[in-house]
């Protein structure tokens, strides 16, 4: 046996091949070649890219092949070592320039590449030989063409099924909580995983954040709802919770996509009732109204003490920032411009907003805050309609982009779809008008309802553990208002989503600073 190190690179592109003989065949061929040529196969360096595409080049950028090349360039793989591949297309089926560059980089790192299929070797010496170079060009060109043709056929077959209204069942686009039927004509629900999905949405709707949900799920042993993969986490993480609540497959929808210049883009409209539904539209709407009304990068987090987060602005245009109370004082809101030294806008106490502004708002819009079953259903219908309108706006924007780009789908077809979207939007606007009228017509619960609501809000923001109650209040405020503006002259202007505005003018003494709690306690 010689001392030359020999490695076997094994790759297959589809998950189904993992259950076949592709890996065993490639390994057995490498061992047989070593025996025949007097080498010993080094199997300590695991070189397997399973279910990894060489057509997209992912194996050369993120896979085991990328790690091997990095080790070779760093001198961790001895120069003169041999890399065995079943055939040259196991290295790459990418565009010709990318494939040639990959092969060249491997041999320039001192590695000899041997194809087991025909015994051909590429190394530093012969890579520059015209015939060898042209042979590698032809092999890579053929491999890329075969993969491109196969991809076109698969896309065409999927498109034909979609157009005919038939199921397009593939493990690749299925969620972890559903699996293909044996006849490949639809999907079955995995009830244990589906129950975990429902729990996540219910907890988010109840005010819990992603970290709290992940901790609860791990502590209680909830079933992981993801597909089983080699690199899948075996525990819950808050990032997974965040992705899950934005996955419309829980509603049974499937959005076909296609690869465009290395990234997936939406292809046509979502297919409804494709997967088994896991949650209701009402629960989806309840969760997403809360998420969509937050500013900045959307993340799931429990609502803390600031029930006006994302809503409160100063008359000068700057945001109002809540400064939490310390042992001796009370919470106040400060203009960010004033904090930065760019303005002298007056601050306002949280207590004044709650006791006077919120009390006045609740008296005017009592239907938004009362907890009767009829009003709860009306508010849920509003949440659902708002969420659906946002989705329709996104779809309409995509079709408008397609028209501007001169999409091959045809202007007439796109225009028809836009008309359908506009019809759906009109119907949803009618629902909003009706439901908001129901809230406005709700009978008052009593002349002191505004004061009682203010009392509840104050209790919620001062009780550290009242997370769910603060979430309920914040959701109600976001459902009703688009913005609250503080005018330092003593006006609180609350703009409603139906185009109205409720203005409260503070009376003399209502904006006076409350005495410090440590001093009032001493007195």
Q: Could you explain how this protein is built, in words?
A:
With 523 residues, the chain is of the alpha/beta class. 45% of the residues lie in helices and 12% in strands. The protein contains 16 helices and 16 strands. It has helices at residues 22-37, 58-61, 64-73, 96-108, 130-163, 191-205, 210-220, 238-244, 281-292, 336-339, 350-364, 373-404, 411-440, 449-462, 467-480, 517-522; strands at 6-12, 48-50, 82-85, 112-115, 121-122, 178-180, 187-189, 257-260, 263-266, 312-314, 320-323, 332-335, 348-349, 481-487, 491-496, 501-505. The strands form 5 sheets. A 5-stranded mixed sheet has the order 2-1-3-4-5, with helices on both faces. Helix 4 links the parallel strand 3 and strand 4 (112-115). The N and C termini lie far apart (94 Å).
Poorly predicted parts:
14-20, 294-303
- Helical residues, percent: 40-55%
Q: Name the shape in a single word.
A: elongated
Q: Overall pLDDT, averaged?
A: 75
The number of distinct helices, counting runs of at least 4 residues, comes to 16
Give the number of DSSP strands: 16
- Briefly note the structural class of the backbone: alpha/beta
Cα gyration radius (Å): 31 Å
Largest sheet: 5 strands, mixed
Q: Which sequence of strands runs across the widest sheet?
A: 2-1-3-4-5
Distance between the termini: 94 Å
Hey, roughly how much beta strand do the residues contain? Answer: 5-15%
